[in-house]
């Protein structure tokens, strides 16, 4: 059984070219990893394969019964449905499902909760257990490890090892190299296919980063090329002594384009001085002090009480397994917790200017509009430094990829008027190169930041202090 793409090209509704004449056969017995920088079209490709998106041209043939997983919100999840009802509605093979539920260490008491009250990791584990216990010939998974703790990733690997074939988009080269035998990399509107045993995780990662660097080079060159073209046209115009105005007309139209590109996006290559962002909050300073503090939804606190003091410019990180109460804690600080959440201990915050970045906010404006109306050139420069290319600048942000939207939200929090930033899983959806840039940005800024993330390596790089949350063991 094979999925075939024949001469596929795809241009998004906002005019961004993602694929050009791609021809590809994917064998359903392959275990394939799909990699590529944010915004190159990985999720779009998966949607083309399952025929949810029709390519602009070319032909897809897929007669395989494939199960599809993605983290994007579905309306049922936000409704008032309980976990047990949801399981009842969607599970085909209960015994196989239960095995996965316990393998993921999910507790039976969760079944009584509303689906929307599950933590992000619990929800992902539930959705993966449902999909992977239902029998399909092939599985197509879009970033399944997002939100999973380390144990969860290991369990997912065990489950995937029992499957015949799958295709998984992820930014985690190590995870993919452990479970796959083929690798596809999206680069410059093309897809390259490798046998995984010929390509180490480090090599795969290097290829992805190189393709990003090349993309930036190509982008830089494009204005140079336009300038050359207009010069040539003007020369031709001089040489042709006739009244023919076609050369000069074309030269003028190209110059207009150059003008637009360079005026709309001024100083794009200007170095952000010492990487310093012109945050408007330089005058505000925030300190967050927590003493013997914990939160919980019943008489028991979720994690053993913690104490710390976060000073301006410092970054405190919290690390702990899915469901331990990290997001609940951040929401408590942000005054957005459910009123069922109780707390013990002391918490003092010296500011009301708080920004929480968790699930992606939806911006209908484009990057250019947001820069013009609110955030200025630092925003444009920052966005570009974080790897978003110019041809995305006019698209409504809501139509960009999950990773691109996440980067924008993180950057906005660094630039807005807040003095205290709370980041709930900032590394989700973000490619490795951008994580590196983010580390650089964060080190030189002056706000107080509390971060929650499952990527321990990332936390080690950005944190002044890491607090490990441990579960309270109670009698029952
Ligand atoms: N209204 C509620 N009633 C009872 N339990 C709840 C409620 N809301 C959330 N919980 C539970 O509280 C626990 C903590 O949730 P929280 O979202 O804070 O976890 P988390 O540490 O952020 O996890 P993750 O790493 O998966 O994001 C979870 O087990 C969750 O199911
Ligand atoms: Mg959470």
TrEMBL record:
UniProt-listed Pfam families: ABC_tran
Gene3D superfamilies on file: P-loop containing nucleotide triphosphate hydrolases
The organism's place on the tree of life at top rank: Bacteria
Record has Coiled coil as a keyword: yes
Domain ABC transporter: residue ranges: 3-213, 288-475
Repeat listed as a keyword: yes
Keywords: ATP-binding, Coiled coil, Nucleotide-binding, Repeat
Any one Gene Ontology molecular-function term assigned to this protein's record: ATP hydrolysis activity
Coiled-coil intervals, chain numbering: 244-278
Protein name: Abc transporter atp binding protein
Taxonomy of the source species: Bacteria, Bacillati, Bacillota, Bacilli, Lactobacillales
């Amino acid at each position: 059984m094979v999925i075939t793409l024949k001469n596929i090209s795809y241009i998004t509704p906002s005019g961004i070219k993602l694929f050009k004449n791609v021809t590809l056969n994917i064998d359903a017995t392959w275990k394939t990893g799909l990699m590529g920088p944010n915004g190159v079209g990985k999720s779009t490709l998966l949607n083309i394969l399952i025929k949810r998106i029709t390519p602009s041209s070319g032909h897809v043939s897929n007669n395989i019964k494939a199960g599809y997983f993605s983290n994007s919100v579905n309306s049922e999840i936000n409704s008032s449905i309980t976990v047990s009802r949801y399981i009842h509605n969607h599970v085909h093979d209960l015994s196989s499902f239960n095995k996965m539920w316990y393998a993921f260490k999910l507790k039976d008491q969760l079944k009584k909760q509303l689906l929307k009250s599950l933590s992000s990791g619990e929800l992902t584990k539930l959705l993966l257990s449902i999909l992977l216990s239902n029998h399909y010939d092939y599985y197509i998974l879009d970033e399944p490890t997002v939100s999973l703790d380390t144990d969860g990733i290991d369990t997912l690997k065990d489950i995937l090892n029992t499957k015949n074939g799958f295709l998984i988009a992820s930014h985690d080269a190590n995870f993919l190299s452990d479970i796959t035998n083929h690798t596809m990399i999206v680069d410059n509107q093309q897809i390259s296919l490798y046998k995984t045993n010929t390509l180490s995780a480090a090599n795969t990662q290097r290829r992805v980063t190189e393709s990003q660097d090349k993309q930036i080079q190509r982008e830089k060159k494009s204005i140079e090329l336009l300038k050359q073209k207009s010069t040539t046209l003007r020369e031709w115009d001089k040489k042709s002594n006739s009244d023919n105005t076609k050369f000069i007309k074309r030269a003028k139209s190209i110059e207009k384009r150059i003008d637009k590109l360079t005026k709309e996006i001024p100083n794009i290559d200007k170095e952000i001085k010492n990487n310093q962002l012109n945050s408007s909050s330089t005058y505000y300073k925030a300190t967050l002090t927590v003493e013997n503090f914990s939160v919980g939804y019943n008489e028991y606190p979720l994690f053993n009480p913690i104490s710390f003091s976060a000073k301006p410019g410092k970054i405190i990180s919290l690390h702990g397994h899915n469901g331990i109460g990290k997001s609940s804690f951040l929401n408590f600080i942000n005054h957005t917790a459910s009123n069922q959440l109780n707390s013990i201990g002391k918490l003092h915050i010296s500011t009301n200017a708080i920004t929480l970045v968790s699930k992606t906010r939806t911006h209908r404006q484009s990057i250019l509009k947001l820069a013009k109306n609110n955030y200025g050139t630092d925003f444009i420069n920052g966005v570009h430094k974080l790897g978003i290319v110019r041809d995305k600048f006019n698209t409504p942000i809501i139509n960009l990829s999950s990773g691109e939207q996440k980067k924008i939200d993180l950057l906005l929090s660094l630039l807005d008027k807040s003095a205290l930033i709370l980041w709930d899983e900032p590394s989700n959806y973000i490619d490795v190169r951008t994580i590196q840039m983010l580390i650089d940005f964060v080190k030189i800024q002056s706000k107080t930041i509390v971060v929650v993330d499952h990527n321990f390596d990332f936390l080690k790089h950005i944190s002044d202090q890491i607090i490990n949350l441990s579960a309270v063991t109670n009698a029952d």
